UniProtKB/TrEMBL annotation:
<dbReference type="Pfam" id="PF13439">
    <property type="entry name" value="Glyco_transf_4"/>
</dbReference>
<dbReference type="Pfam" id="PF00534">
    <property type="entry name" value="Glycos_transf_1"/>
</dbReference>
<dbReference type="InterPro" id="IPR001296">
    <property type="entry name" value="Glyco_trans_1"/>
</dbReference>
<dbReference type="InterPro" id="IPR028098">
    <property type="entry name" value="Glyco_trans_4-like_N"/>
</dbReference>
<dbReference type="GO" id="GO:0016757">
    <property type="term" value="F:glycosyltransferase activity"/>
</dbReference>
<feature type="domain" description="Glycosyl transferase family 1">
    <location>
        <begin position="204"/>
        <end position="363"/>
    </location>
</feature>
<protein>
    <submittedName>
        <fullName>Glycosyl transferase, group 1</fullName>
    </submittedName>
</protein>
<feature type="domain" description="Glycosyltransferase subfamily 4-like N-terminal">
    <location>
        <begin position="43"/>
        <end position="194"/>
    </location>
</feature>
<dbReference type="GO" id="GO:1901137">
    <property type="term" value="P:carbohydrate derivative biosynthetic process"/>
</dbReference>
<keyword id="KW-0328">Glycosyltransferase</keyword>
<keyword id="KW-0808">Transferase</keyword>
<dbReference type="InterPro" id="IPR050194">
    <property type="entry name" value="Glycosyltransferase_grp1"/>
</dbReference>
Length: 397
């Protein structure tokens, strides 16, 4: 085995979900926190471990009253306490201090931090090369969430980028924006899925009657734009009176902000506000639905879109919604619409509901595209190449 083939020891600083990683642990503790989510990094950790690399994953969790640690042959998992509120007042000061203490004790070849905030600020103190994945565009998030917390995050992001680390991003739109700021060697590595676990065997042929539409998003805001979908769905029900809309995610449960907003405007009829669901419950909802409608104005990547495609579920998304047009291959794998116009969303939905040929085409092309382009095992190889280039000094910034 040549040095270039040796398994790596990787320190991963990231939000994550522990559920998909427990099979990599020898004796998962009964009090193992669920984690705060992050399907992209979670699947990457699993893929790196499956390829024989050793990953030490360090994460924060409000469920952890004290550090929780678990080990396996290829995974060392560490979850540290995180305050439930007021973290922005000191830019995650105590959390970063705890992360730094763990980082200082690591014996690894390379460190990989996810997002340009507390984890990336900590990674700067590594004694080995480090890589940062830029997963959102903070100025755009702040535009739709102009609150002190995101102003602090903007400052954190500026410090991280000002240090000019090795950068990757899953998002074509973020890649372009970084390029305009003078970052020339950012590597574009999309998010991926465990295809062997997620992808169905065959595409779908036609929607059911009455149809079931699905939305999965963790924010009721102008950025995620589910209000426009609720307006569009009210129009859809004039054509399909028994149609249903399932809304999954934070702020979209019974009595949550989305439900209150819809009820005040008479847009709640036929809508099930399900709120936060586990990943397996989301997959089950996808299998029972006929369309995923993703009305976000800004979506750096949109992992829920590739999850839907892996289940053969056709997608309606935004023409200018960050990474969504890239995922949908410019409209070959789904309907692209003007998400600022509810009538345009309606037109995209009706195209798929009323045209069996187009519906089957989107299901077929989407399933093929996600299998060929977004298999996390293949994408993990690109990250390993990036790690080795950073370690060898071949990655010119």
């Amino acid at each position: 085995m040549t040095p270039g083939d040796q398994p790596l020891r990787i320190g991963m600083l990231t939000p994550l979900s522990t559920g998909p990683l427990t099979h990599l642990l020898d004796d998962p503790p009964a009090d193992l926190p669920a984690g705060i989510g992050g399907p992209g990094p979670t699947d990457l950790i699993a893929a790196l471990a499956a390829a024989g690399h050793h990953v030490t994953a360090i994460s924060l969790s409000p469920e952890a009253a004290a550090p929780v640690r678990a080990r396996g042959t290829h995974l060392d998992l560490r979850l540290l306490p995180m305050r439930e509120e007021h973290r922005g007042r000191d830019a995650y000061g105590p959390e970063r201090k705890a992360l730094r203490a763990e980082l200082d004790g690591l014996d690894v070849d390379v460190v990989h931090a996810q997002w340009t905030y507390e984890y990336a600020l900590t990674a700067h103190h590594a004694t080995v090369p480090y890589v940062v994945t830029v997963r959102d565009w903070t100025p755009q998030v702040l535009r739709y969430n102009f609150i002190p917390y995101w102003l602090v995050k903007l400052g954190m992001n500026a410090v991280v980028l000002g240090r000019r680390p090795h950068l990757t991003t899953p998002s074509p739109s973020v890649l372009r924006r970084l390029g305009r700021l003078g970052f020339r060697n950012v590597r574009h590595i999309p998010n991926g899925l465990q295809i062997q676990d997620m992808a169905v065997d065959r595409p779908r042929e036609a929607p059911k009657d009455p149809p079931v539409l699905l939305s999965v998003t963790n924010e009721f805001s102008g950025r995620k734009n589910t209000g426009a979908l609720l307006q569009a769905f009210a129009i859809i029900r004039r054509r399909h009176p028994a149609a249903e809309l399932l809304m999954i995610g934070n702020e979209h449960g019974p009595g949550d902000e989305a439900a209150r907003w819809a009820t005040e405007r008479g847009l709640h009829v036929g809508v099930q506000f399900l709120g936060e669901q586990s990943r397996s419950e989301v997959v089950a909802a996808m299998d029972g639905a006929d369309l995923l409608v993703h009305p976000a104005r800004e979506e750096p990547f949109g992992i829920v879109v590739i999850e839907a495609m892996s289940r053969g579920l056709p997608v309606v998304g935004g023409t200018r919604a960050g990474g969504v047009p890239f995922i949908l291959d410019g409209g070959a794998a789904g309907e692209l619409v003007d998400v600022d116009n509810p009538e345009s969303i309606v037109a995209g939905i009706l195209t798929l509901l009323g045209n069996r040929s187009r519906y089957a085409e989107c299901s077929t092309v989407g399933l093929q595209r996600v299998t060929e382009e977004f298999d996390v095992s293949r994408l993990a190889e690109l990250y390993v190449r990036a790690y080795r280039d950073a370690m060898a000094g071949r990655w010119v910034r």
